[in-house]
Amino acid sequence: MAELTATTAAPAQRKERLLWLVAIGFFMQSLDATILNTALPSMAEALGESPLKMQSVIVAYALTTAMLIPATGWVADRFGTRRVYGTAIALFVLGSVLCALSPNLSFLVAARVVQGVGGAMMLPVGRLAVLRTYPRDEFIRAMSFIAIPGQVGPLIGPALGGWMVEYASWHWIFWINVPVGLIGLWATWRWFPRGALVAVRKFDTAGYAMLAFGMVSISIALDGLSGMGLGMALVVVLMVFGLASLASYWMHALRVAEPLFAPDLFKVRSLRVGLLGNLFARFGSGAAPYLIPLLLQVGLKMSPMNAGLMMLATVVGSMLVKRIAVRTVHRFGYKRVLQVNSVMLALMLGSFGLVSAGTPLWLLLLQLFIFGGFNSMQFSAMNSVTLKDIEGAFASSGNSLLSMVQMLAMSMGVALAGALLTGYTDMWHSHEGFRMSAIRATFATVALMTLAATMVFSQLEKDEPVRPAPDGGDA
To answer: Residues 30, 160: one domain?
Structure first.
């Protein structure tokens, strides 16, 4: 009897250790993102760059992640989840070390690409390992456990990033990943399950190349509008070839047997609307984590520490709304919630354009708190409506497509914000306080772009059945 108990306990213990390992990866990613946003203005000063032109640091990571997500499932099946997850952590740590050692912006952007390669594989492969280890009735509990570190990271990230920049140096926002990553790497090789062999399907290499080239070309073209050294002719050429590559992928997918994303997937109305809505809504909300620290530190002259503490209001608003998001959608329906919330999100983004040095601190905190709430509601409802009608063989593919669109939209949103900041700065460069004016105008413009999502969500069926949200995270 004792022998039977020990045999049963060992697999259970390994399963719990797997959850902790995946949670470590989730924590590193969420912490890295929120620490970085607060530190960007100080990093710009240390590297001799304009604080309004640091968007490439964020774009490089998000774009690399978006580009690699479609291949992560195949890579995990081909080489095994244990090996790929360990490699992902190792690359993330290596990228963090290179970021900390960066002597200039170009080196830092290249290091963020290395970090992005690791980040692209870490969470999807970790989720896949959990999916294959836990039965369906335990999977929701397992994923809820993994999501906790993803909420802790944003909670402590802004203040920790501000503290490190103010009392140590910006390099420590990357050095902090090293000990956590090394512990995760050691634990992965020791406890991560090897998993059963999986039949590897043929990978759509040609389709992947077209899709990746299209995403990279368009994002670099948008980033080039902010003056990263690309001439206008090259920006136009990149944009044209990027669009042509995406169009070629679609025609390619219609004629091959096993494309990356089957065209039949887009016959699901809620998926089509959800993906497009995610894209347009995140042009504004995805740029906010980049723009708000600039407003606080460059516009209002706050210290990094104080700016980080102010950002906690956004996190608190987000976490409180998460508790009522599902009930709200169940009561009013996806279409009404997303249309109204898109308008409110746009209004809150636009309200930051009215902030000045004379704005009371309590009012600014209230703005950040309310914005965090509407932003959380938007992400939860968008993610849920996109995936709620995807079933069977399309479930994994639809989830990967949503993750790719989310990261691509964030990349494009930050790139557009950088381009707008550059354009407004050049327009008002001769005026006093031109940086604050450029930041205000950029907030107003991204608010208008966010309103486009309202038009997209109007295409949802009003009487669509509302089901419980599968995982309405703010990914």
So the answer is: yes
* Residue 273 DSSP SS3: helix
Express each pLDDT in 80-107 by its tens digit.
Answer: 888 888 899 999 999 999 999 999 999 9
Q: Are residues 95 and 84 in the same domain?
A: yes
CATH of the domain at 21: 1.20.1250.20
CA distance 150 to 147: 5
Q: How does pLDDT run across 409-419, given as a tens digit for each residue? A: 888 888 888 88
pLDDT at 473 over 50: no
192 with 316, same domain: the answer is no
pLDDT value of position 7: 33
Same structural domain, 343 and 216: no
Q: Say yes or no: 58 and 190 in one domain.
A: yes
Single pTM value for the model: 0.83
pLDDT tens by residue, 391-436: 666 766 777 788 888 888 888 888 888 888 888 888 887 676 788 8
Contact, 304 vs 166, CB < 8 A? yes
- Secondary structure (3-state) at 474: coil
Q: What is the pLDDT of residue 461?
A: 79
Give me 6's structure tokens. Answer: 């020990």
CA distance 129 to 127: 5
Residues 270 and 399 reside in one and the same domain:
yes
The answer to whether the beta carbons of residues 36 and 60 sit under 8 Å apart is no
Q: How many CA atoms lie within 13 A of 194 on its CB side?
A: 2
Please say which residue of 203, 220, 236 terminates a domain: 203
Domains: count for the chain: 3
